[in-house]
Amino acid sequence: MSFDAQAVRRQFPVFASRPGGQALHYLDNAAMAQMPRSVIEAMVAHDSLSRANVHRGLHPLAERADRAFDAARATVARHLRVADPAEIVFTAGCTAALNLLALAIGAELGPGDEVVVSRLDHHSNLAPWLMLARGRGVRLRFLPVTAEGRLDIDRASEMIGPRCRLVAVTHASNVTGAVTAVPSLVAAARAVGAKVLLDGAQMLPHASVDLPKLGVDFYCFSGHKVFAPTGIGVLWGRRDLLSALTPPFGGGGMVGSLDEDGLTLLDLPYRFEAGTPPVTQAVGLAAALTWLDEFDRSEIAAHERRLTDRLLDGLAAVPGVAVVGPPSLEQRLPVVSFTIAGAHPHDVCQVLGERGVALRGGMLCAQPLMSGFGLTGVVRASLALYNDDGDVDALLAGLAQTIKVLR
Ligand code: PLP
Fold first, then answer.
1. Which of 29, 365, 382 to mutate to test the pocket of ligand 1 (most atoms within 8 A of CB)?
2. Which of 2, 17, 94, 119 has the maximum number of C-beta atoms within 10 A of its C-beta?
3. In this structure, are 53 and 68 located in the same domain?
4. Considering only CA atoms, which of 184, 187, 167 is closest in space to residue 121?
């Protein structure tokens, strides 16, 4: 039996009843995915029955909250096949995770050191390293992108030289949908003793990620793109590497002891979680990953692939449309960006939005990629498991009419 997207969709309150009765064709999943009822209910239950600050309060409610928070961390670790939950650091999101790492690693780097990023990266993985480069005299090198919108892995060994300390790139592009050839990248980094960080913000909603198998050193992602709430993300790092870094933020919950002369730090992960952590959001994230784990991920992938194929075929038939990204479905997420001759992406998104088709348009926080392609913006349709043929067809039909209106 084929994957039942309709049954999945029924689990999402957002699709149940729309204002004015208009159907919602939600194709903006790369920006934020919707939340299933089970995730919303898990958070409501937590806030109703177990709400208290964590960090070892001694009353029963606080103990319940502690247990829920610990269980959430263990669930995230299991989802990523990580044996030690202490390697899972909760952050406010992927951006927060990347900044945390850039500050922590940055403190160890100086003039002469190099960090390799790529022209395919989201600004979240560029701005922190650019700020670091400016502040500490670290040289930033940009891996180039092929005409298809893939990381040009053939140039990896040339860019990742003996001074490289870290290769920090996206696991999959939020613009072209291209999935990074991780083994080649890891091999190039290992050849010079550099560490590897992958930004998994776009990858994790679409594939099960086995971190030990992937062979990288650090990984991060955001909850809101994996059917979980906003305000939560994860930084994973190998225990020996995380333990060797100095936390850039201080506060309650990370201190072993403190007096006027200084402080000692708690062990992982707490030393990186200063202040009250996002407890309810962690519960929501765990519920979302548990929900995802109940599916056969290969069925989801096949479903998303079929829809991507339908979308790419449909777009190829619309005059003036050019896809920015790989034409093949190999190593490609269901994230499809395109330009339309004579139509501004913002106008296209607005007109289609009024027809119930939710898209994203503009630079997509990827200016180096856009300028490399000589573009000022794209329209992006990004799919999730609850999308179906009807969503793709609504986009294609709406697009044809929108083009008539705008030209
Ligand atoms: N990395 C990639 C590839 C993204 O697509 C995004 C968001 O779109 C981010 C990082 C930043 O995620 P957040 O805004 O949730 O911190």
1. 365
2. 94
3. yes
4. 167
Bridge partners, residue 321, by sequence = 340
- 261 shares a domain with 310: no
For the segment 209-217, the average pLDDT, to the nearest whole number, is 97
Pairwise CA distance, residues 60 & 38, whole Å: 25
Q: How far away, in angstroms, is 20 Cα from ligand 1 center?
A: 32
Say if residue 118 is in the same domain as residue 224.
Answer: yes
Residues 227 and 311 in one domain: no
Please check whether residue 71 is in contact with residue 100, taking contact to mean a CB–CB distance below 8 angstroms.
no
Q: Are 25 and 86 in the same domain?
A: no
What is the arithmetic mean of pLDDT over 366-392?
Answer: 97
What per-residue confidence (pLDDT) applies to 255? 97
Q: What per-residue confidence (pLDDT) applies to 1?
A: 56
Domain of residue 312, residue span: 5-31+296-406
94 is catalytic: no
Please indicate whether residue 94, judged by its CB atom, sits closer than 6 Å to ligand 1: yes
| Chain centre distance of CA 124 | 10
Q: What is the DSSP string of 6-68?
A: HHHHTT-GGGT--GGG---EE-BTTT-----HHHHHHHHHHHHHS----S---SHHHHHHHHH
Look at 401 and 74; give whichever has higher pLDDT.
Answer: 74
pLDDT-above-90 percentage for the chain: 94
pTM of the predicted protein model:
0.97
Same domain, 285 and 305: no
State the closest ligand 1 atom to the C-alpha of 224, by its place in the atom list counted from 1: 15
Question: Which residue CA neighbors atom 12 of ligand 1 most closely?
Answer: 94
Q: Residue 134 class from Cβ within 10 Å (0-12 exposed, 13-18 middle, 19+ buried)?
A: exposed
Task: Tell me the per-residue pLDDT of 161-212, one tens digit each, with 9 for 90 and over.
Answer: 999 999 999 999 999 999 999 999 999 999 999 999 999 999 999 999 999 9
Domain count, the chain: 2
Rounded to the nearest angstrom, the distance between the alpha carbon of 401 and the centre of ligand 1 is 31
Mutate to test the pocket of ligand 1, among 222, 230, 285 (most ligand atoms within 8 A of CB): 222
At residue 183, the pLDDT reads 96
Does 50 contact ligand 1 (Cβ within 6 A)?
no
Q: What is the CATH number of the domain that holds 51?
A: 3.40.640.10
* 208 and 94 both lie in a single domain: yes
Does residue 401 register a pLDDT over 70?
yes
270 & 357 share domain = no
Give the active site residue among 94, 164, 220, 365.
365
